[in-house]
């Protein structure tokens, strides 16, 4: 058994890089209408649910020769960026596992044909599984192969995200895709047959567009074509009333330039918090706090986010933790010689 002292701190990084790409998202009108009904019930409480941690399993797909995989340092930068953006929703993430899959077939990944076998073989059941590929494609309705940059699905049951390696240079992309898995649509209206575009004056904001009233009407931005280097909208689109659009270019769920996208709106944060606390979200971590006590015999902790504050472990005792445990030790905690924290 490996005996280690774990002190884990969440570091926040800011790192930006730009690369163009469309994000394909798979959800339906019924999904979004159901979600908005549930969120409306939650918003009446006008308060956030408590902090929850989510474990992430990163699967780095390489060639059969073991080449072409993502630089692991980019995962840590992405995690820091995400935690900075999601803390406003009382949601945080930590790495449970980073594994390698060496297979030419999966490295050049066609989601239509290969996803089922891949996920059945490698998914970790109680984590958000993020796969990183050298190349991604899918077959459209006309059986034509199309490039794919990133994909996730809206809840319930959303614990799978697939990305090209190069999107990890644009930290907003993984943050954007995780946003979908916590109930957020794009700021523009797409994939919703029968749902109208939002008017610039906001008069139909709760029943059109992305259904959020604190995200201005968005005509669907096209990266650098509609947003200049100063992050100013330079498109000339108008809505059905003839009013000129003036969308926010800093919203993570938009298609503005990647380096411009830095925030979620307050309503979006409320939506994330709501979905993070629903029973259908099975992969959140259960917290346990142990404080102001002396342990002189072995103790097994089954929760996977553990806060140890002002504790003393003595008499050759062991605190036995589960795999993938996130541990934070603070205060005047002490572990006497011969005593341990054991992670199975």
Strand and helix layout:
Layout: H1 29-43, E1 52-62, H2 72-86, E2 91-102, H3 104-107, E3 108-110, H4 111-122, E4 128-133, E5 135-139, E6 145-147, E7 150-152, E8 160-164, H5 171-181, H6 266-276, E9 284-285, E10 287-295, E11 299-301, E12 305-313, E13 318-321, E14 326-330, E15 334-335, E16 340-343
Parallel strand pairs: 1-2, 1-4, 3-5, 4-8, 10-12, 11-13, 12-14, 12-15, 13-16
Antiparallel strand pairs: 1-9, 5-6, 7-8
Helix pairs in contact: 2-5
- Estimate the helix proportion, in percent: 10-25%
- Helices and strands, in order, run as HEHEHEHEEEEEHHEEEEEEEE
Average pLDDT: 82
Largest sheet: 6 strands, mixed
- The count of DSSP E runs of length 2 or more, i.e. the number of strands, is 16
The poorly predicted ranges are 1-27
- Using only C-alpha atoms, the radius of gyration works out to 22 Å
How many helices? The count is 6
Q: Strand pairing plus helix content: what structural class?
A: alpha/beta
Give the amount of beta strand, in percent: 25-35%
Distance between the termini: 6 Å
Shape: globular
How would you briefly describe this protein structure?
With 344 residues, this protein is an alpha/beta fold.
For the structure shown, list the relevant keywords:
single chain; 344 residues; disordered N terminus
Describe this structure in words.
Strands 1, 2, 4, 7, 8 and 9 form a 6-stranded mixed β-sheet that branches. Strands 10, 12, 14 and 15 form a 4-stranded parallel β-sheet that branches. The radius of gyration is 22 Å and the shape is globular. 36% of the residues are buried. The protein has helices at 29-43, 72-86, 104-107, 111-122, 171-181, 266-276; strands at 52-62, 91-102, 108-110, 128-133, 135-139, 145-147, 150-152, 160-164, 284-285, 287-295, 299-301, 305-313, 318-321, 326-330, 334-335, 340-343. It is α/β, with parallel strands linked by helices.
């Amino acid at each position: 058994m490996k005996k280690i002292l774990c002190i884990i701190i969440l570091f926040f990084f800011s790192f930006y890089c730009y690369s163009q790409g469309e994000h394909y998202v798979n959800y339906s009108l019924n999904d979004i209408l159901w979600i908005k009904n549930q969120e409306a019930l939650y918003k009446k409480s006008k308060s956030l649910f408590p902090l929850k941690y989510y474990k992430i399993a990163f699967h780095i797909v390489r060639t059969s020769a073991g080449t072409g995989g993502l630089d692991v340092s980019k995962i840590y930068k992405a995690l820091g960026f995400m935690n900075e953006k999601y803390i406003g929703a009382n949601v945080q993430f930590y790495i449970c596992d980073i594994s390698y899959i060496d297979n030419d077939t999966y490295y050049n990944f066609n989601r239509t044909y290969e996803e089922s076998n891949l996920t059945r073989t490698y998914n970790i059941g109680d984590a958000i599984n993020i796969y990183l590929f050298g190349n991604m494609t899918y077959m459209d309705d006309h059986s034509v192969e199309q490039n794919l940059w990133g994909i996730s699905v809206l809840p319930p049951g959303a614990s799978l995200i697939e990305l090209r390696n190069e999107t990890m240079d644009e930290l907003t992309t993984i943050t954007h895709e995780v946003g979908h898995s916590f109930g957020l649509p794009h700021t523009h209206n797409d994939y919703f047959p029968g749902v109208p575009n939002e008017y610039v004056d906001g008069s139909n904001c709760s029943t059109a567009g992305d259904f959020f009233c604190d995200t201005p009407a968005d005509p669907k931005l096209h990266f650098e074509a509609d947003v200049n280097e100063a992050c100013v909208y330079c498109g000339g689109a108008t809505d059905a009333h003839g009013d000129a659009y003036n969308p926010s270019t800093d919203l993570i769920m938009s298609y503005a330039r990647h380096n411009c996208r830095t925030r979620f709106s307050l309503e979006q944060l409320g939506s994330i918090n709501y979905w993070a606390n629903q029973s259908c979200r099975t992969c959140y971590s259960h917290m346990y706090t142990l404080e102001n006590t002396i342990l002189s015999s072995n103790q097994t902790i089954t929760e996977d986010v553990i806060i140890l504050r002002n504790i003393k472990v003595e008499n050759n005792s062991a605190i036995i933790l589960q795999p993938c445990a996130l541990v934070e030790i603070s205060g005047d905690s002490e572990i006497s010689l011969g005593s341990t924290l054991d992670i199975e």
